[in-house]
């Protein structure tokens, strides 16, 4: 892996982790304000228990992506981030919200994809010739 790819990976992964962790903690604490607060999910029509599920999913996903080894689990974490952020962005679009509400979800979606694409070989699932 080239030095440039490592830098891209760690910058994207760092910002992704910070974004997911901060919104996960805010959702876990059921804060009212902000793009990840319960006011936002109330506006979107989601129940409070759903916010708690999202919070735990985000926090566990960040832990999974940052820890060494377990490449298959990392694939699931990245997939979960993509599903969560697509769902968030599409929910805001469906409610007619502006770009200021949609942008954080799209940004975290893009960071998830960049981090996944540039991840080092040790963090990828490697198929044996029999599984190809």
Describe the fold and architecture.
The protein has 132 residues and is mainly alpha-helical. 72% of the residues lie in helices and 0% in strands. The chain contains 5 helices and no strands. The protein has helices at 3-28, 38-44, 48-66, 71-94, 99-117. Helix 1 packs across helix 5 and helix 4 (71-94) runs antiparallel to helix 5. The mean pLDDT is 90.
Count of separate DSSP helical elements:
5
Described by strand count, sense and barrel closure, the largest sheet is:
none
- Contiguous uncertain segments of 5+ residues: none
Shape: elongated
Oligomer: single chain
Could you tell me the strand content as a percent range?
under 5%
Secondary structure: helix percent: over 70%
First and last CA, distance: 23 Å
Average the pLDDT over all residues and give the rounded result: 90
- What structural class do you assign from the helix and strand content? mainly alpha
List SSEs in N-to-C order: HHHHH
| Gyration radius over CA | 16 Å
Q: What is the number of E strands? A: 0
Name the descriptors.
132 residues, mainly alpha, 0% strand
List the helices and strands and how they pair.
Layout: H1 3-28, H2 38-44, H3 48-66, H4 71-94, H5 99-117
Helix pairs in contact: 1-3, 1-5, 3-4, 4-5
TL;DR of this structure?
The protein has 132 residues and is mostly helical. The chain contains 5 helices and no strands.
